[in-house]
Design brief:
By secondary structure, this protein is mainly alpha-helical. Helices cover about 70% and strands about 5% of the residues. The chain has a 3-stranded mixed beta sheet with strand order 1-2-3.
Length: about 500
C-alpha cells in the first residue's frame, strides 16, 4: 500500500463515476425530450466541474496513486473497489469529463428520436470511461472496459447512419474478441499474485520470460484493437462514419486512448522483457499505420472517413512514442493522446455541423462554404492546422516530442515516420481548400447559415486548448513527468538489459 495515497477528503473519484449513473437513473422517471437534454448537460457539466479538485489537489511531485478509495466488494474472491489516479491517468480523466458536455451540445438538434435513451447512453458511457482510467482493481477495470461496449453499440446501432447495424456489430465483435484474451491474462495474474486483483501489486513482479511473452500478446491484442493499430483498424472507419456526431467524438477523443493507456498501465510494467523483445515489431507496425492512414485519408471524399483514417495515422504516432521506451517519447505520447482527443474530436464536431445543414458528408457538398460560413471555416482552419501539427498548435508539441524520442532511439525509424507528417498536411489542406474556396463550379451554398451561438460555444473550448497546449505545454507535461520518470526507471531496472538487443534489431 506504499504505492497509494489514501484520500482523506470527499470521495471525488467515486462521485465522478456514480454521478452520471445517478443522473441516468433519474432521467428514467421523466419522459420529456427537452428535460433529457438540459438534465444531461447539467449532469455532465457538474461532473466536469467536480473533476477540477482532482487537478488542483494533484501532487505533481510524487508518482504514487492519489485520491485513492478502497472498499471491499466481493470478499471471498478478494475483489475490491479501488480507484486512484497518477500522472499517467489524470490528464485522460480530465479530458473525459470535459469533453462530455460538448457531446451533449453537439447532439442538441442532431438527435431527434429517442432523445431520452440517447442521453442515458451518454451518461452511462461517461461513468464507464471515467472508471477505466481510475480503476486499480483488475476486475473493476475489466467490468468497466466491457461496460463501454453496450452504450457505444447502441449509439451506433440505433442513431447511426444507413449501415449502422454492420458498423455496430463489427465494432462490438472486434473489441469483444480482444477482451477475451485480456480476461484470461487477468485470471492468470490473479493466481500468480496470491489471489489478488490489485493492479499495483501485479507490476514489476519479474514473471518468467515465457509468461511475460504470453501476457504481452494477450494485452497487445486487446489494446491494439482498441487503439486501433494497423492491421486491427478495420472496424474504426465504419464505426466513425455511421456513428452520430457525439459517438464519433467519444470514439476519437476517449475510447481510442484506452488502448494506449492499457499499454502504459499494464504491458510495460507487467511484461517489461517481452515489451523490449517485441518492441521492434510494434514500432514498425506503428510506422505502417502512420503511412497507411495518411495515404488512405488522402484518397477519401467522405469527410468523416478522411478524419477516421487520419486517426489511424495519428494513433500510430502515439504507439510509436510509447514503444521507443524513453522519457521524451512516452511524455509526447501521453500529450498526443490529449491533443488527438481535442483536435480530432473538434473536427468530428465540425463535420457534424456541416452535415446538419447539407445532410451529406461528401466534400463536394461542402465545397466553397467559406464564402457563406466564415466563422465555421475559421474554426475548421485552425483545427486542420492542429491536425497536421502546425507549429504553435497543440499537436506540434506532442509530435515533436515523439519524433525526438524516436530519433534518440533510432534515426532510420524516425525518418520512416516523417512521411506521415507530410501526408497529414496533404490531406488536411486538400479538405480545407475544397471547403473554404472550392473551384469554379461550386454548388449554390448561399442558403447555408453560419454557426449559431450554441455551436460556437461548443467549438471554442477546443480551440482554446489547441493554442494553450501549443504555446504553453509545460503545465501539462509537469502533471505527468514524475510518473513517467518513475515508470522508465522501473522499466529499465526490470527489463534486464534486453533493450540493447532490441535497438540492434531496429537499427
Amino acid at each position: 500500500m506504499d504505492q497509494l495515497l489514501i484520500n482523506q477528503g470527499p470521495p471525488l473519484l467515486s462521485i465522478l463515476i456514480f454521478l452520471p449513473i445517478a443522473g441516468a437513473f433519474f432521467m428514467l422517471l421523466v419522459n420529456n425530450e427537452d428535460f433529457a437534454r438540459y438534465w444531461t448537460l447539467a449532469v455532465t457539466s457538474l461532473t466536469a466541474v467536480l473533476s477540477l479538485p482532482v487537478l488542483f489537489g494533484f501532487d505533481r511531485s510524487t508518482a504514487v496513486f492519489q485520491f485513492v478509495e478502497k472498499h471491499t466488494w466481493i470478499e471471498s474472491l478478494n475483489i475490491n473497489y479501488i480507484v486512484g489516479v497518477d500522472g499517467i491517468s489524470v490528464l485522460l480523466l480530465l479530458m473525459t469529463t470535459f469533453i462530455m458536455p460538448f457531446c451533449v451540445l453537439a447532439s442538441w438538434t442532431y438527435i431527434k428520436s429517442r432523445v431520452q435513451a440517447f442521453m442515458i447512453c451518454l451518461l452511462i458511457m461517461e461513468a464507464a470511461m471515467v472508471g477505466v482510467f481510475v480503476a486499480l482493481d483488475f476486475v473493476l477495470f475489466y467490468i468497466l472496459w466491457e461496460a463501454m461496449l453496450i452504450p457505444m453499440y447502441m449509439l451506433i446501432g440505433i442513431w447511426g447512419g444507413p449501415r449502422k447495424i454492420y458498423a455496430s456489430v463489427k465494432f462490438f465483435l472486434y473489441t469483444l474478441a480482444g477482451s477475451v484474451l485480456l480476461l484470461v491474462a487477468i485470471i492468470w495474474l490473479y493466481f500468480e499474485n496470491n489471489s489478488s486483483f490489485f493492479i499495483p501489486d501485479m507490476m514489476w513482479n519479474g514473471y518468467s520470460s515465457m509468461a511475460q511473452m504470453l501476457l504481452f500478446l494477450a494485452f497487445f491484442l486487446a489494446f491494439a484493437i482498441k487503439v486501433p493499430m494497423f492491421p486491427f483498424h478495420t472496424w474504426l472507419p465504419a464505426a466513425h462514419v455511421e456513428a452520430p456526431t457525439a459517438g464519433s467524438v467519444i470514439l476519437a477523443s476517449i475510447l481510442l486512448k484506452m488502448g494506449t493507456y492499457g499499454f502504459l498501465r499494464f504491458a510495460l510494467p507487467m511484461a517489461p522483457e517481452a515489451t523490449v523483445t517485441l518492441m521492434p515489431f510494434v514500432l514498425w507496425l506503428s510506422i505502417a499505420g502512420i503511412i497507411y492512414g495518411g495515404f488512405t485519408a488522402l484518397a477519401q471524399s467522405d469527410m468523416k472517413k478522411l478524419i477516421a483514417y487520419s486517426s489511424v495515422g495519428h494513433m500510430g504516432f502515439v504507439t510509436l512514442g510509447i514503444f521507443v521506451l524513453n522519457q521524451s517519447g512516452i511524455e509526447g505520447a501521453i500529450l498526443q493522446m490529449v491533443n488527438h482527443g481535442i483536435t480530432t474530436g473538434a473536427l468530428f464536431l465540425c463535420v457534424g455541423m456541416i452535415y446538419e445543414r447539407t445532410h451529406s458528408r461528401e466534400l463536394k457538398s461542402a465545397t466553397g462554404v467559406g464564402q457563406y460560413m466564415p466563422v465555421f471555416v475559421t474554426f475548421l482552419g485552425f483545427f486542420s492546422l492542429s491536425s497536421f501539427a502546425f507549429p504553435g498548435t497543440n499537436s506540434f508539441v506532442g509530435e515533436f516530442m515523439i519524433l525526438a524520442g524516436a530519433f534518440e532511439h533510432s534515426i532510420p525509424l524516425a525518418l520512416a515516420a516523417i512521411p506521415g507528417a507530410v501526408l497529414a498536411a496533404a490531406y488536411m489542406l486538400r479538405m480545407l481548400q475544397k471547403v473554404v474556396w472550392g473551384g469554379t463550379d461550386n454548388p449554390d451554398q448561399s442558403w447555408l447559415k453560419d454557426l449559431n451561438v450554441r455551436e460556437i460555444v461548443t467549438l471554442s473550448p477546443f480551440l482554446f486548448f489547441v493554442f494553450w497546449i501549443g504555446l504553453s505545454p509545460q503545465p501539462f507535461i509537469n502533471l505527468m513527468r514524475v510518473s513517467v520518470t518513475n515508470l522508465m526507471n522501473d522499466f529499465n531496472a526490470y527489463s534486464n538489459g534486453a533493450m540493447a538487443v532490441a535497438e540492434a534489431i531496429i537499427r
